[in-house]
Amino acid sequence: MGAPPVRRRRLGAELRALREAKGLKQDAAAECIGPRWDNTRVSKLEGGTLGIKADELGTLLDLYDVVDPVKRDVLLALARAGARRGWWQTYRDIISPAYAELISLEADARSLRSYQTLLIPGLLQTAAYARASISAINLSSTPDQVNALVEVRQARQAVLSRPEPLKVWAIVHEAALRPTFADPTVMRDQCQRLLDLVALPHVSIQILPLDAPPHPGMAGAYSVLGFPESADLDVVLVEHLASALYVEDAADVLVYGAAFDALRAHALPFDKSADLTARIKQEYAR
Fold first, then answer.
1. Are 115 and 217 in contact (CB under 8 A)?
2. CA quadruple 197, 198, 201, 205: dihedral positive or negative?
3. Which of 82, 207, 210, 284 has the most CB atoms in a 10 Å sphere around its CB?
4. Has residue 3 got a pLDDT over 60?
5. Nearest to residue 110, comparing CAs of 231, 23, 215?
6. Rounded Cα–Cα distance for residues 72 and 235 (Å)
7. Structure pTM?
């Protein structure tokens, strides 16, 4: 069994802390919630491997004397997010649990701050670029699986056009704009896609130039997902070739946020970033 989803893990940790703060045992929580609950189920709930219904959670929060409406709303939002099944479940045979978790988090997030070294952020990719990059990275995938993964990546981009769109701030290293694909139109069109996206009020893109001085991004790419309920719920994603790490500790998340601010200072301003992207696009048009 893999690690429990981020939102359930966070809910469980919060409930455990509330119970311990009241000096209660797990059997007291189980008795309060209802007859189908016992110590084992409460343990699973606090460990993030079991969900809870909204009315049951409300009863538990009453036991813990949680009266702050904001706190209650945050915990209820975590419970709903942990139980929701999204469109990406259709692709569960080809996407990893970590990738499914990312899509779920994007669906709930208010903002995304992404620093990428060698790849265009997935939410900003054209279908052709997605296909070329997925084929290069997923060495064991069949053509049909690549097609499905491209569909997933394109479907993810719906968060940019929803009624309250995801606010994206991407810092992209110049090296990510300069790969050599067999078909140069892939990067030409990808550069144009970036230029089109920056016209949207909720998308900001900066390019970190090749001649930038030493910076925190030298440690690698990452993304910070921000949520409307509370800054304490923000999550950092660090992706690897065959796995992904979610950083949830609030102090660690702040470190990544500070690093992103430093990268913003080293990256080109928005207008110069667009100018450089346009120049690189022309190089692919030759």
1. yes
2. positive
3. 207
4. no
5. 231
6. 20
7. 0.83
